[in-house]
Design a protein that fits this description.
The chain has 6 helices and 15 strands. A hairpin with a 2-residue loop joins strand 6 (130-134) and strand 7 (137-141). Helix 1 (11-28) crosses helix 4. With 248 residues, the protein is of the alpha/beta class. Helix content is 33%, strand content 31%. It is elongated.
């Protein structure tokens, strides 16, 4: 199921867009849950990364769609943003927040459908980063849900943020090859850790602490300096992205 938030200070446009999305869902046999907000402030206060897609009116009173999108982007880099507008020239503002597209009022079913398909395709392409194979079954998992990978009794164990543990075959080297976002760092011959979930590390004993795990993941003394360098570079990149967004 996909979750979509509509935000427009004119109720009629929210209702019109919701109707077109519902018709799209019926026609394409897919499940879509739609929530409506009638001000940027209302969506901002309620926002907790619970949506796959946001459709924001550019010209709202109070917090307009562009500024709302900029605020949301500071905490959520994954959500797909689509702007709705009465004036085509406002579409250029979408590049600042990596918007997927825009829909000009009055809405047409063809345009709504096209933008939804583009958004769904973008979500599917970015959602799953790793393939886990075990006993002939293949499972796809998102990098954002992976805490770390552990080698245990010649099997791979994928520890996920929701508490699940998935077993897989292969090697840590093969897992690392799938790491297109360069988020996995090898701390030990038996562990790959996701940089996104690291909360702290220590030098004596060599341990890295991961959110959601009691105790630490070991760091080999031969890998400690390389780990610190990799983690600090990741942290610098993260701070740079945040400062660039603040400057926009």
């Amino acid at each position: 199921m996909f979750h979509i938030a509509l935000c427009d200070d004119e109720k009629k446009y929210c209702e019109e867009m919701q109707q077109k999305i519902n018709r799209y869902a019926e026609k394409n046999d897919c499940e879509i849950c739609v929530d409506c907000y009638y001000s940027g402030e209302a969506l901002w206060l309620a926002y907790e990364k619970q949506y796959d897609i946001l459709i924001l009116d550019v010209e709202m009173t109070g917090i307009d769609g562009v500024h709302l999108a900029e605020n949301i982007r500071k905490t959520d880099e994954e959500v797909v943003i689509i702007f709705s507008t009465s004036h085509r020239q406002y579409a250029l503002d979408g590049y600042r927040v990596e918007a997927s597209g825009y829909i000009v009022k009055p809405f047409s079913e063809e345009t709504v459908g096209r933008e939804l398909e583009k958004a769904f395709r973008r979500i599917r392409e970015s959602c799953y980063d790793l393939t886990v194979s075990f006993n002939g079954e293949v499972t796809m998992i998102a990098m954002s849900q992976l805490l770390y990978v552990e080698v245990y009794r010649h099997k791979l164990i994928y520890h996920l943020a929701d508490g699940r543990e998935l077993r897989g075959t292969g090697s840590l080297k093969e897992v690392k090859k799938q790491d297109a976002k360069d988020l996995l760092v090898q701390t030990h011959k038996s562990f790959l850790v996701n940089l996104m979930w690291i909360t702290s590390y220590q030098s004596s004993p060599h341990l890295v602490f991961v959110k959601g795990r009691e105790g630490g993941v070991p760091i080999s003394k031969y890998r400690y300096d390389e780990f610190v360098e990799t983690y600090m570079e990741y942290y610098r990149r993260k701070l740079t992205r945040l400062s660039e967004k603040d400057a926009r």
